[in-house]
Request: fold
Amino acid sequence: MNIKYISTLLTGVLECLLFAGLLFGWASLVFVLKEEEYFCLQDVTVTKPASDVTTRSGVTGAPTTNVNDSRMENLTEASQLTTSIPTPELLDTSDCSTYQSIQLGRVFTVASMVMGFSTFPNGYILDTFGSWVARTIALILFTIGCILTAVSTAESAWLLYPSMSCIAVGGVLMVMTNFQIGNLFGKYRSSVITLMSGSLDSSSFVFLIFKTLHHIGVSLSTMFEITAVCTVLLWVRTFTLLPRKSIPFPLPKGFDYGIDDCKKQKSNDERELASVNGHDGEEKMTLHVTASSDAIPDEPSVRQCVGSSLFWGNALHFSFLQLRNYFYMGTLYDLLQKLDNNQDTVSSYLTVFGTCQLFGFLCAPLNGLLVDNVAKYLRKRNSDPDFIPLYSVACSAIATSILGTVFSIFVAIPIMSVQYGSFVLQVIFRSFLYGGSSSFIATAFPVKHFGKMFGLCMCVGGIVLFIQFPLITLALDKNFTALNIMFIFVSLLTLAHPLNVIRWCKTKAAKKSVPTEGSL
Reply:
């Protein structure tokens, strides 16, 4: 086995694990930000009565003797004038907690939306300009995000909006450049891509480490400064263990990349072009079998793919289940606090949640195993081979909807200990959600459009995340129970997509068999 390929794989896994998905550990970071009193200091104008004014002696509202009435009136007026000047003040504990929760929830929502919207232009940049240019943009954004977070304070808490958005966009673009590593390993290509996706899921444990270090006295700024410095290693990896353009599939004999890519760029481009031209016919989507108003013809354009009901079914299925997942991650701290107001208990539960996230990469292969086993079963049943891949990914979508429903049921139960079950289910559910959507797009549409279709699907998901703004405010003002019950029914409704895919396949298979029967 080529040592360079192995080094590329291992460093790619570490990159996804330690950097790419930091935003997914938001619940642990919220605990730290609240302790640092982010979004608690606000410019307020208040006029307090004399009884509320603390004197220089430190006694508040103490009775005063041997002072005439006129002097007391002057003292009261002076105190009112003094406290009516706008100054940064710490809000009351109850007001601060609510305001913090709303603002931090908005930070997470904005970062998630920006990440979703960025996938389509990111895919275009990667396809057009190659890995080096895409990763340069990714690392610059990621580093800027770390620096902005490091210099932020309670007084400049607004910096979290751009900083977390930069970290999220830079991270997802890093992952997109790492998916191509699977092309180096031939028949193990899917396994490598799944490993990268699972490592991304597990990267949320990094903020759990931040939470632990903050508890023993390490400042938030120090941790993000160290993270920013560590990106130097990612720059080195970019130009030594990744190609200037892309890694073709199947891999041409003698293909090289990294620094040597500059010397052999011309010959590599020629080999890649020949390889792509020679395999275009093998990469067509399975459902190019019949022509109808809803079917997608051979070699469809992006516009034709986007106009398909299958695309919109998958996009909405993914978007609403992603909303379920993001709402949970963005409000987990507040949910646990409402169930048990003890900070030590909440902290211990967040630690368990972060630990569960670490094992996300172990759940990633489960979806692939389900799809493979369904395909084997259908082949034994002599099902139409043209539709077996779509039937398989439809079963994966059914499993995802069921997992989302069961997960929502656990979250809706207002018992603290039950949330341990929701932690485990969330990890499995998230793994099925992202892996299943990617598999459906790769199966239902031409490979050459994968990046664009995946990006558009994520953009739709970003638009749906706008709903999270009023949901967070509603949950904090009222309670979580009603919203969590709503998400149970929303998750059930997403079953409409896989059922529609199955109906579509049966309809097309029946129409396909009609000419054959008539010719016999």
Summary: Strands lie at 41-44, 87-90. DSSP finds 21 helices and two strands in the chain. Residues 348 and 354 are 10 Å apart (CA to CA). Residues 43-68, 75-93, 272-297, 516-520 have pLDDT under 50 and may be disordered.
